[in-house]
Amino acid sequence: MPMSSLSTARKLGVVARVAGQQVSRTRTFGAVIRAGRTTLSHFRRVLGQLWLEVTGFVFLVLAGIGALALAREYTKFQAGQVGSGRVALAACFTGLFGWFGASSFWRVKKRR
Length: 112
Fold this sequence. Notes:
By secondary structure, the chain is mainly α.
């Protein structure tokens, strides 16, 4: 098939494929690819650490709110206004979210 009968788009596709093959063989292209992979891996690690720290902070804030509720419910329990179930629920909530927050920060420390 003569070259003149090929469409312009097809010719451009052939030229682009050949140019891409030539570029992929260069040391510069390999260095750029390795640099990109290294940069992305560092960003991934930092973003993962940030995610754990933010979620840990949110869980600790929720545990603090639970501690305030626990104190309020315990005061009401001492006055005989509520049953022990509400105090136990507030204590479980506070403990659970405190554990989630602390373990999130421990995971950050373990990654370093």
